[in-house]
Every structure is written in structure tokens, then in C-alpha cells.
Amino acid sequence: MRILIIEDELDAFQQLKKLLKELAPEKKIIGHCCSIKETMKWLQHNLAPDLIFSVVQLPDGLSFEIFRKLKNNIPVIFTCKYEKHAIEAFKANGIYYILKPVKKRELEDALTRYKDFFSPSRNQYKKSQLQPQSHYQERFMVPTGAQMKLLKTEEIAYFYTENKVVYLVTFEGTKYVMDYTLERLQLLLDPRFFFRINRQFVINISAIVQIAPASKSRLQLTLRPVTDHNTITSFERTDNFRKWVLGGL
Q1: What is the CATH number of the domain that holds 218?
Q2: Which CA distances in Å does 11 have to 23, 145, 173, 197, 223?
Q3: 45 and 78, same structural domain?
Q4: Which of 117, 113, 120, 102 is nearest to 26 (CA)?
Q5: C-alpha distances in angstroms, 182 versus 134, 142, 151, 179?
Q6: Which range marks the domain in which residue 157 is found?
Q7: CA atoms within 13 A on the CB side of 127
Q8: Domain end marker among 130, 148, 168
């Protein structure tokens, strides 16, 4: 495997290089860049790597700019001191998000994620891994007056319960009454994309706009569409939520 590292802090680069040598000595680091400009130039004059490790914040901007310009979908493992960029990272070819300083166990999990989802000789997902698991529901039937309508799961922003009634809310902001409990929905929905954040909400990862601390052990989520209901992660779910958002579940 050929790896490109984008990291402007020398100590962080040396530490990552050391850990990679310990965990995967067969993997070859073929380049090291320290800025967006340098990375774009490197990619123009070299064969595409199999995997990129990239810090988020660079001296000349956020590294997401690089991956928005790339024509090929090279998988990226992002590193950052803060969680706030995690959602954007997964929209920019990210397959894993590691909080700095990089720890050996986290790096090992990230490399396992790459191994599980990617072919070492091709810069693309294995088709078998991209397909939803057969036991997860791909569509829901919802009532629209006297008729019924089919909704794909990717159209659903979140489910929530109020006064013992469960509602489905689409990204367009349309709300439907559902004849399901949240517990049942947890079994039906693909856990890669949906997570129960508290007693009231099951959310789609694409519905998360912002994550902010609510307390030492809870997080406040801003969702789209906007809701007035409680979107703070419950104490007992916060750790797993962090892992889920960062790609670790």
C-alpha cells in the first residue's frame, strides 16, 4: 500500500510515521506534504496513492479543499485536535477520523477500516461492502391522506417520539406518523447511518449540522431540518455516539 501523509507539524508527522512502521511495516510512505498548495502540486506530478492521512487544519486552509478538487476518490483518514470537523470529513472521502494526538489503538482501528472496505490495488470501495446489508430496511411506507407513499431511508433525516407517537421527518421537512416504536426502528435501520442519540431521537448521520458540548459528558446536536425538541445525547449514549460519528462503530 502506498501512503501520502499531509501534516504540517513535524512532531505529529514523525509520530504517525513511527506508528505506521510498527503497525504496518509493509506499507510505504511515498510522500509528505505540509500545505494545500504543496499537496495539489504533489498529486499533479505523482501517481495517486492508495491511502491518504491528512490533518484537517493546514497553514493555507482546511484540507477538505484538496479533496473537493480531486477527480478520483482516494480514501482519506483525517486527523484533528477537535471533533467539530468530523461530519465534513466524511463528506470529503473520509473513512475514519482520529483525534490528535494519534494513539496506536485508534490508528490500528483506522487501518482495519481501510482493509475492510477497500481493495489495496484499487482506489474504490468493494462493491459488496457498499451494498446495504439485506436485513436492514431500505424503504418505509408512510401515509399521505387516504394513500400510501414509499420513502427511501436516505430521504429520512430523523425519527422522534412525542406523546407516545413516533414521527418520521424527511430532509425536505415533511413529517409523517409512523406505526413503529424507536426500539423497532433501531433493529430495522442500518447502524452505519442511523443512531439513537437519546430516548426521543433516532437520527441519520447526514442530518447533523453541528456538534457542541452540552456538558462534560453530553453533546448538543444541531440537526437539519431544525427541530425544537431535545437533541442532546444522553449520558449513556454519548461515548458510542462519538465512536459512531468518527467511524469507529
Answers
A1: 2.40.50.1020
A2: 18, 62, 46, 36, 37
A3: yes
A4: 120
A5: 20, 16, 17, 10
A6: 139-245
A7: 0
A8: 130
* Range 75-85 burial, b when 16+ CB lie within 10 A, else e: bbbbbbeebeb
Q: For the chain, how big is the Rg over CA atoms in Å?
A: 20
Cell of 102: 494519534
Distances in whole angstroms, Cα of residue 49 to Cα of each of 13, 23, 27, 32, 76: 17, 19, 11, 12, 10
Indicate if 159 and 195 belong to the same structural domain: yes
pLDDT digits (tens, 9 = 90+) for 124-172: 334 334 344 447 888 998 988 777 889 999 999 999 999 999 999 999 9
213 has a pLDDT exceeding 70: yes
User: Does residue 77 share a domain with residue 26?
Assistant: yes
Domain end, chosen from 74, 104, 130, is at: 130
Query: Mean pLDDT lowest for which of 60-64, 86-90, 195-199?
Result: 86-90
Cell of 33: 506534504
Decide if 19 contacts 69 (C-beta within 8 A): no
Residue 98 in grid coordinates: 482520529
Q: pLDDT (tens digit, 9 = 90+) per residue, 18-45?
A: 999 999 998 999 999 999 999 999 999 9
* Neighbour count for residue 131 (Cβ, 10 Å): 9
pLDDT tens digits, one per residue of 171-192:
999 999 998 999 999 989 999 9
10 and 126 share one domain: yes
Q: How many CA atoms are closer than 13 Å to the CA of 137, on its beta-carbon side?
A: 17
Average pLDDT of the segment spanning 97-115: 90
